[in-house]
Amino acid sequence: MSTKSRSRSKVRLSRALGVALTPKAARYLEKRPYGPGQHGRTKRKADSDYAVRLREKQRLRAQYGIREAQLRIVFNEARRQYGLTGENLVELLEMRLDALVLRAGFARTTSQARQLVVHRHIMVDGQRVDRPSFRVKEGQLIHVHERSEGMEPFQVAAAGGHASVLSPVPPYLDVQLDRLQARLVRRPKRAEVPVVADVQLVVEYYAAR
Fold first, then answer.
1. Cβ 136 vs Cβ 126: under 8 Å
2. What is the pTM of this model?
């Protein structure tokens, strides 16, 4: 799939789910705040409880760009932990390496953050990590490999080039953008995570299956 086709697909998915998955999708949603297709503007009949829960689950999955199997694994882990399952779920997802690379401002989109990790440009405590799903621990340092720092995408990031399209850096990250470094100072809290989803509905979706 070409870059243009992928971009178009992201925009359509964003409009269907009602949440911007890319900066381009955010612009489209401002102009066309309704679903895609010829019936996007028409008033639809009320969704079933199942459809509502399914959409929230899909919204959460799309914002992290993960497969269903990956989300199910993290959900099962969240359910075993102390506290509210929905909040645990988002907090665990937010500790993924690709998610934190995005939050730190090293990348413009989730897809780009994943690509930077897969291409081995990102290090954790001095070790290359090429798994986007890598779970970063409290206190660990995320940084760009010194040989990659001169690349254009990282030069743009270091100059704050993504600030206009990203949420403010959350308080659970200590970021030195000019040095392309970010430290996870503590576990994220659900209220601080800039993800749009009703996590209780996600929990209900999985509980019913």
1. no
2. 0.84
